[in-house]
Design goal:
234 residues; 83% helix
């Protein structure tokens, strides 16, 4: 039942954000839809459940952002922070193979910076500031995939392959990092115990995931670019 509530609340956050039409408010609404469910799981001392709920939240955002951008690319380009800029950057990469996505000297510092900022925000604010950042990232990534599918001759397959495997690994790693690093402050505020050995194990796996993200992106980005170009039919 809680899983259904997470999905429903997340979808409702997009509906409200769409109606309001203020881009800066959407990631905040996305966060409000999920943050209480993470806290409830952590207060029960169930770190795995908190991670599972936030993974479901991220999945729902990814699907919603992709489908909205497929159906209404002009509107989501405005509503999703950095949506248009990221879409243009990624379209250029798909068409030419040139750009940060296929250049380790560009994407490694960028991703390391994102991970450091996200981790710091999660630790300092109990996740309250990190989750909106995560929502912004998910929304503009979804905008790229949805708009790519809208211009593709095979939209359904493009929606799947547009979520590059290394990006999926990165999203999962960020979610786990966000939950675990939110726990220290939240546990002090609400006086609950956390399974810190499990938390450390999860952080190690997340670090391995971020490393795998870089390795796979370095090795597979050129192949994936050619694959997407062929599927989209440009």
């Amino acid at each position: 039942m809680i899983g259904v509530a997470v999905v429903f609340a997340t979808l409702a956050s997009y509906a409200v954000g769409w109606a309001i039409g203020v881009p800066i408010l959407l990631p905040i609404l996305n966060t409000l839809a999920s943050f209480p469910f993470m806290v409830l799981a952590l207060r029960r001392g169930d770190l795995r459940l908190a991670v599972a709920r936030m993974l479901l939240w991220a999945l729902t955002m990814g699907v919603a952002a992709t489908l909205l951008s497929y159906a209404r690319p002009t509107q989501t380009g405005t509503l999703f922070l950095r949506g248009e800029a990221y879409q243009k950057e990624m379209f250029a990469w798909v068409m030419t193979g040139q750009g940060a996505e296929g250049t380790p000297s560009q994407f490694i510092p960028q991703q390391a910076g994102h991970a450091a900022i996200f981790s710091g925000l999660a630790l300092a604010t109990g996740g309250a500031a990190a989750m909106p950042m995560g929502a912004v990232l998910m929304n503009y990534m979804g905008h790229y995939v949805g708009t790519l599918a809208a211009s593709s001759r095979r939209p359904a397959l493009t929606m799947i392959l547009g979520w590059h495997p290394w990006a999926v690994i990165r999203v999962i790693s960020f979610v786990v990092i966000g939950v675990v690093l939110s726990a220290p402050l939240l546990s002090r505020l609400w006086k609950f115990r956390v399974d810190w050995p499990l938390g450390r194990t999860l952080l190690i796996w997340s670090a391995a995931g971020l490393t795998a993200d870089v390795v796979l992106k370095t090795l597979l980005a050129p192949v994936w670019q050619h694959l997407l170009l062929r599927i989209v039919g440009w």
